[in-house]
Amino acid sequence: MLHSISIRGRFLITAMLFALIAGFLCIFIPMLYSVTVYFDRETVVWFIPPKNFWLLGLAFGAVFFNLLMLAFKRNYITYILTAIIIAASICIGYLSFLSVTIINNEHIYIKDLFDEETYLWSEMNEVVLYYDEEENYEEYVFSLSDGSQITMWNNPKLKVGAPALYSIFQKYNIPYSAQPAP
User: Fold this and answer.
1) Are 172 and 124 in contact (CB under 8 A)?
2) What does each C-alpha distance from 64 to 29, 47, 82 come to in angstroms?
3) 48-89: per-residue pLDDT in tens?
4) Are 74 and 66 in contact (CB under 8 A)?
5) Residue partners of 116: CB distance under 8 A and separation at least 6
6) Model confidence pTM above 0.70
7) CA–CA distance, 27 with 86 (Å, rounded to integer)
8) Residue 93: how many CB atoms within 10 A of its CB?
9) Dist. CA 5–CA 102, nearest whole Å
10) HEC letters along the chain
């Protein structure tokens, strides 16, 4: 037994290895999932909200702290707590896959956790890009015919897909303007 690793040491090593691997998984798993599930050749722009990455990080963080807790204290209470934390982590991890925004040639599809909305381009009245040069902030505001609005932060994926968006605006005769932020 002199050259064996203790239970505490095994949990600590597992926690450290899990923390190293979890960082990479938090970055790539939401992207891989959304590319696999929501792939469509007609998609102009798709992006994943940052909350997906944060939720998956929270789930992995809970497992990490759970492993640390088991390294220092192991009794029936910590085992029950471990089961509860693992179940909660699975639920939070599941929630991290549910949000996506897809801009297609025919519509905008926004899925936010359990809410799904599809907005057809034919229902759009106007698109305005508000910008603030001092804060380097831009956001698109899509005005619908029923009076509601969709607001999207101009993220890097939207900037790359901007030429395709402008051609969609022209195809559907949607007025587009860029204005300073109010």
Assistant:
1) yes
2) 18, 28, 11
3) 889 999 999 999 999 999 999 999 999 999 999 999 999 999
4) no
5) 109, 110
6) yes
7) 20
8) 18
9) 50
10) CCCCCCHHHHHHHHHHHHHHHHHHHHHHHHHHHHHHHCCCCCEEEEECCHHHHHHHHHHHHHHHHHHHHHHHCCCHHHHHHHHHHHHHHHHHHHHCCCCEEEEECCEEEEEECCEEEEEEHHHEEEEEEEEECCCCEEEEEEEECCCCEEEEECCHHHHHCHHHHHHHHHHCCCCEEEEECC
Question: How far apart are alpha carbons 57 and 95 in whole angstroms?
Answer: 12
134, 119 contact by CB (below 8 A)? no
The gap from C-alpha 181 to its chain's centroid, in whole angstroms, comes to 26
Q: Using CA atoms, how far apart are residues 26 and 136, in angstroms rounded to an integer?
A: 27
Q: Looking at 76-80, 121-125, 177-181, which range is the least confident one? A: 177-181
**Both tokens of residue 26?**
């938090």
Which token pair is 115? 């809410």
How many residues are there in the chain? 182
